[in-house]
Design a protein that fits this description.
Bound molecules: 2-acetamido-2-deoxy-beta-D-glucopyranose
Order of helices and strands: HHEHEEHHHEHEHHEHEHHEHEH
CATH topology: TIM Barrel
Shape: globular
InterPro entries: GH, Glyco_hydro18_cat, Glyco_hydro_18_chit_AS
CATH architecture: Alpha-Beta Barrel
Keywords: Glycosidase, Hydrolase, Membrane, Transmembrane, Transmembrane helix
Helix content: 25-40%
Strand content: 5-15%
Distance between the termini: 42 Å
GO molecular function: hydrolase activity, hydrolyzing O-glycosyl compounds
Number of domains: 1
Number of helices: 14
Protein name: Glycoside hydrolase family 18 protein
Structural class: alpha/beta
Largest sheet: 8 strands, parallel, barrel
C-alpha cells in the first residue's frame, strides 16, 4: 500500500502583434465598463472572470523560444484567442523556474524598448496586454520540481508573499503542491493549512485570487492520513478561490471515462471522481476545475482524453450525474496556441 501510494502519484505538472487597443472585454462574454484606474480595472476583470460559469485556463511552462521578444510574448499567451487565465510556472522557495523567471526579470529576456525599460514597467505592461485581451495572469508555485515541506511553511509563505508584493502585476497565485510522501503521512496537510493562512494574510493586494492545483488523488479522505485536501478545504477553503485539479498522470486511476471521472474513481485512489469529491468531501462542483494534458505528449502516463471525447464524457456527467464542471485547464499552453483543444472541447460540451 505504502509503495503503491508513492509509485502511482506521479507528479503531473512537471516538468504578436502587441495589442495597444483599450477594448475591455472578457472572452466570450459581455463587455464590461472600461476604467482609467488600472487597479479598479484589475478588480473588475478579476470579478468578471471569477463569475464566469465556465473558465478556460492554460499553464505556461515551455516557451517556443527566447528570441525575438515577440516569440516570448506569444509563448506567454498575451494574444491568445481562447484562454481566460494564463498561469506561469513555477515560483519556488529560493528559485525561479521557466516562465516565472521571465516574469521575475523580464528585462533580461524581453529587453528594453519593447514593452518597457525597467522590470517593473515591463511587468506592468505585460499584465496590461493580458487585460486588454480579456485574460488574467497568474503564477504557480512549486510544481513537481520542488517539495517545500522540509521548510517552515510560515517562512515559505512569507517569502512568496514578499515576492508578489514586490512584483505585484499579477492577478492570482496558484499553489501546485506535489509532495506526495508528506501528503501520505499527513504532515503535508498541516503544512498546507499553515502556508495558506500566512500567504493570504501577508499579501498586500487583497483582491488576488488564490487557487490550488492538487492531483485528483489528494481528495481521497480514505487514502491519506490527515484527509489531505478534504481537511485543507475544511480548514482554509474559504480563502481558496477554486481547485485546478490534475485528473491525469495517476497511473491506474485514469479519469478517462464517464465512470472513472464522474461516478467512481476506483483503486487505489478511491473516492476521487467528481461525484465522490462533491458528496464525500462536501466540496461544491463550482470549485472543481477539470485539468487535462493538452496533447498526449503533455502526459507522463495516463489521463489524456481527446477533447471532443472529453466533452462527451462531461455531457454525460451533466445528464446522468447532474454535475456541471465550472471550466477546465490544460497542461500546457505551448500545445494549444491554436486553440485546437479549447475549440473541440467547448464546441462539444453543453455546459449551459
Ligand atoms: C485577443 O487577441 C487575439 C489575437 O490578436 C484577438 O483575435 C482577440 O480578439 C483578442 N481578444 C480580446 C478579447 O480582445
Ligand atoms: C468512500 O467513501 C464512502 C463514503 O464516505 C465510504 O463509505 C467508503 O468506505 C469509502 N471508500 C473507501 C475504500 O474507503
Amino acid at each position: 500500500m505504502q509503495i503503491n501510494r508513492v509509485i502511482f502519484v506521479v507528479s503531473a505538472l512537471i516538468a504578436v502583434s502587441l495589442l495597444t487597443g483599450f477594448a475591455f472585454y472578457y472572452k466570450n462574454g459581455a463587455s464590461i465598463r472600461p476604467d482609467t484606474s488600472s487597479q479598479t480595472r484589475q478588480q473588475e476583470l478579476i470579478e468578471a472572470i471569477k463569475a464566469k460559469p465556465f473558465k478556460s485556463i492554460a499553464y505556461v511552462n515551455r516557451l517556443a523560444g527566447y528570441w525575438p521578444p515577440q516569440v516570448i510574448l506569444n509563448s506567454l499567451g498575451v494574444n491568445s484567442k481562447c484562454y481566460d487565465i494564463f498561469i506561469l510556472t513555477f515560483w519556488m522557495y529560493g528559485m525561479m523556474g521557466d516562465a516565472v523567471s521571465v516574469y521575475d526579470k523580464p528585462l533580461n529576456f524581453i529587453g528594453p524598448d519593447v514593452i518597457g525599460n525597467t522590470n517593473a514597467e515591463i511587468q506592468q505592461n505585460l499584465q496590461k496586454l493580458y487585460h486588454d485581451n480579456g485574460s488574467l495572469l497568474f503564477i504557480s508555485a512549486f510544481g513537481a520540481a520542488q517539495n517545500p515541506t522540509g521548510f517552515d511553511p510560515t517562512l515559505v509563505a512569507e517569502s512568496l508573499a514578499k515576492w508578489v508584493n514586490e512584483n505585484p502585476y499579477i492577478d492570482g497565485i496558484d499553489i501546485d503542491y506535489e509532495d506526495n510522501d508528506a501528503i501520505v503521512d499527513g504532515t503535508g496537510t498541516k503544512w498546507l493549512i499553515t502556508f495558506q493562512k500566512v500567504l493570504r494574510q501577508k499579501l498586500d493586494n487583497k483582491h488576488l485570487l488564490i487557487t490550488h492545483a492538487p492531483q485528483a488523488p489528494y481528495f481521497s479522505r480514505a487514502y491519506y492520513d490527515n484527509g489531505a485536501y478534504y481537511t485543507v478545504e475544511k480548514e482554509v477553503g474559504n480563502t481558496i478561490d477554486w481547485y485546478n485539479i490534475q485528473f491525469y498522470n495517476q497511473g491506474s486511476n485514469t479519469y478517462d471515462s464517464y465512470e472513472s471521472l464522474f461516478v467512481e474513481s476506483g483503486k487505489p485512489f478511491v473516492n476521487t471522481s467528481y461525484s465522490e469529491i462533491i458528496k464525500i468531501d462536501g466540496i461544491p462542483a463550482e470549485k472543481l476545475i477539470l485539468g487535462k494534458p493538452a496533447v498526449t505528449a503533455d502526459a507522463t502516463n495516463t489521463g489524456y482524453v481527446e477533447p471532443a471525447k472529453l466533452a462527451q464524457i462531461c455531457n454525460e456527467g451533466k445528464e446522468k450525474s447532474g454535475i456541471t464542471i465550472p471550466g477546465f485547464f490544460i497542461w500546457q499552453y505551448s500545445s494549444d496556441t491554436s486553440c485546437r483543444f479549447y475549440d473541440a472541447f467547448t464546441q462539444n460540451y453543453k455546459y449551459k
